Amino acid sequence: MIRITSKKAGFRRCGVAHPGETTEYPNDRFSKKEIAILEAEPMLVVEHVKDAPKPQKPAPKTGKGSAGATKSTPASKGTGDQAKGDGGSKTS
């Protein structure tokens, strides 16, 4: 991202009337030649800013536990716990 601040509102350079406040442009907005012209212009302050990663959407809250985490416990083998469920067998 390129951030440009003009020392005088409306100052024109490279086909843009630069406002008095700082304006951000995508990296591909200006050619390499135009960037060199903008950087050499004493009426403009040009900064190259590393693009911040786009924020990710937070995971939906489940309402269980403090962070929505669940505990997984292994099933007991041959202890009679299978009577509580379907026993692991599927019949159609």
Overview of the molecule:
The longest helix is centred in the middle third of the chain and has 9 residues, at 32-40. The strands form 2 sheets. Strands 4-1-5 form a 3-stranded antiparallel β-sheet, with helices on one face. Strands 2-3 form a two-stranded antiparallel ribbon. A hairpin with a 2-residue loop joins strand 2 and strand 3. The protein is mostly beta strands. It contains 1 helix and 5 strands. The model has no long low-confidence stretch (mean pLDDT 77). It has one helix at residues 32-40; strands spanning 2-6, 11-13, 16-18, 23-25, 44-48. The chain has a domain at 2-48.
Structural class comes to mainly beta
Bin the helical content: under 10%
Q: Shape, please?
A: elongated
Q: Total number of helical segments?
A: 1
Low-confidence stretches are none
Largest sheet: 3 strands, antiparallel
Question: What are the main properties of this structure?
Answer:
mainly beta, 3-stranded antiparallel β-sheet
Layout of helices and strands, plus pairs?
Layout lengths: L1 E5 L4 E3 L2 E3 L4 E3 L6 H9 L3 E5 L44
Antiparallel strand pairs: 1-4, 1-5, 2-3
Concise account of the structure shown:
The chain is mainly beta and 92 residues long.
